[in-house]
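**Fold in tokens:**
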Amino acid sequence: MKQSFLNFKIVVILLTIGLTTSCSNDDEPIAPDTDGDAGSGVDSRWITVAGAKMGDSPGDGNGGTLIYSVTSEDAKDPTVQIDPFNNGFVAPSNRTARLQASEDGHTVFNISYAGDTGGNYTKYTVEGGGSFVQTGSEISIAPYVGTAPRWIKLFDGDKTGAAVYVSTEHQVDDNDTPDDVTDDTYLYTNSTIGVVTLDLVDSQINNFQEHVITLSEEESAAGYYISRIDMPVLNATGDKLYIGARVSKVDPSTVESDSGDYEILGSKTIVLDYPSLLNPSVITSTVGNGNTNGYRSINAFLYDGSVYQANQGDPEGSHILKIDADNEYDDSYDFNLDDALGVEGAYILAWRPAANGKAILAYRHEGSEEGLAGAQGFFALVDLNSKTATKIDAIPYDPDFYLFQYQGFVVDGTEIYVTQAPVGQNGNIYIIDTETGEVTKGAQLVNAEGSHFIGVF
């Protein structure tokens, strides 16, 4: 007799939410000049700063999310103070909101995380300071992905968001002794994935599909299964959706989570037809091992016809992997962060490339100090073409600088904006010119007790 044990359900989703920055100048921010050229010094967009307020303990971010916007000119001005915790707009969410911004910075998208409003999608027009005006209708995606979703905006001109979840069932032969799991024979684990796409313009559901994903016979028999998915991204032709995956393992003899020293499989990605969300398949890297689902920040990006994807938990240090136009991993592309940075145990926390193929990457490694929120880290300038990475020394390091919950970078031409402030301490916006490597120290970030900044949008 075959019996199914519901193991757990992980709700993971993705989409875009825009965050706006808040400034404590007496004068109201002036609306950006939308005719300006990106990176030219002429204001072309709003810069939104997001802060996660402390809940019960420093750095947990469970007290809600506040956002505040300034012009790019003010964001570069070190005399400007940005204080979202006192002057910002409260983004609806029981815990840390899942935010994304439009490509021009004029719209913020939010999906509330947990609580009575969990799963509610709203969007706002950015008007500067703490002024965000709701536009369009509100819609709930909770019936599809639950009330604590993680979602992301697809890079299709701010048209679509995507959210995902996975639930797992261990399949066992109970040998006619259903009350004694120790006598059961483990067979494999099924992972049921759900994917919903959301029209960001008209606030409506585009499509929803579920699929059962099981790994290869050999991998499944050994106890491996997909336990979490996140961070969808479209391929260059817009006909395939790639979804990052975490692989976990049970001990087949006990059907309990395997805590032993087991082999970490090659990094995997689920591939679906788009926009139908049908015909699932799983591709596997032979270059990198570990997970590709990321956490709070977008983990995969389209550049020069290919998708570049970070992995985490790789025993040899995080890699940036490449998926080519044939929808398979390019295993000739070997970009290892340990080698590029000269460290051990590099772990990519968040990253974002500009259109020139150069990226800013937040990472930690085995040499990172333990702070309030664990071992956190540093920023590096990365070149996807040359497969090189250089630590950015101009951005100060502090062991209490929390990057694990980091969500947003602003890309404006060849410039990338980031925030740096330790938990409960003030800091600054920094702007990196990815062509020259020059770093500009920008506006001051005013923090609150136990709180931290989760990025710019």
